[in-house]
Fold this sequence. Notes:
- This protein has 336 residues and is an all-alpha fold.
- The protein has three domains: 3-72, Orthogonal Bundle (Multidrug-efflux Transporter Regulator, Chain: A, Domain 2); 105-233, Leucine-rich Repeat Variant; 264-336, no CATH class.
- Helix content is 71%, strand content 1%.
- The chain contains 19 helices and two strands.
- The protein has helices at 3-10, 14-23, 41-55, 60-68, 74-104, 110-122, 128-136, 146-155, 159-170, 177-184, 189-200, 205-213, 220-232, 239-248, 252-265, 269-282, 286-298, 302-311, 317-335, and strands at residues 30-31, 37-38.
- The protein has a two-stranded antiparallel sheet.
- This is MerR family transcriptional regulator.
Amino acid sequence: xxxxxxxxxxxxxxxxxxxxxxxxLVSPTGRTAGGYREYxxxxxxxxxxxxxLRSLGMSLREVGRxxxxxTFAPAELVxxxxxxxxxxxxxxxxxxxxxxxxxxxxxxxxxxxxxLVALLRxxxxxxxxRRQQAVLSQTESAPLPVDALVEAVLTEExxxxxxxxxxxxxxxxxxxxxxLEAGLGSPDPRVRRRAIxxxxxxxxxxxxxxxxxxxxxxxxxxxxxxxxxLGFRGVQEAVPVLLETIVEGRKDVEASxxxxxxxxxSVPSAEIVRSVLRALDASSDPRTRLRLTQTLAEIPGDAAxxxxxxxxxxxxxxxxxxxxxxxxxxxxxxxx
Length: 336
């Protein structure tokens, strides 16, 4: 069978057949009566073998190795092809997500599309300043897609870039919440902390509801961040975690201030004072008891005043002295 007929029957162009011949992959080994080279049945079988291997994504070099090297392991080839295929799928999936994000942002002109693509590429930069600039350079006509912002918020390690991202994401309102909710379910505590930090800057009831869920987070830092944010919003459920934070000495000053604000706004001060006193009675650690006494000094109202007055007779002199100073300060503030 001559080259033209082989091309017609196999679907492989004559140009590619000649290329295979030059590479030594498939060469016609027969001869016609007139001396012309022709493809034998064995040559055709080899040609279809080559085409089958190429359809798997193999390069011509890999095909030649598979055909000629007796030590070539098919299992290794399959694993390599799997890896290449997975990488290609991941790259295509990422490209698709970006294109969908650009489409969802409804750009109004080619300039907007090009600007969005440039901003998304800037997110991949190793330079923190460039990533930050990408966030700050958004325009109303070409804002960054919310999904891209959420992904960046949940992965960004640079504090300055993360702050800019959270600011930008907060402007998206409820559109940002599904992605942040998914972040709260991440097995990585760092991702959950970033999701909580972003929710803290979204002043919506739906964001507050998500923060309530974070009060049960197994990570102390995440739990504390959620409690502080909810305390600022006047949410009573934050009180136990805030007290836990004070007892453990983690951000105890901030937690005490938040408890004082809660007592001043939304939670009866007597109720908070009772919780603090229960923690005082349950602890024998001098530093813990001192922190709780200082917390009482932040709480307004008669209940806190009476509790401090009782503590001036505490067996721990440091606690007693701190309570006395707090009472003096409170009296001075009242006179003023």
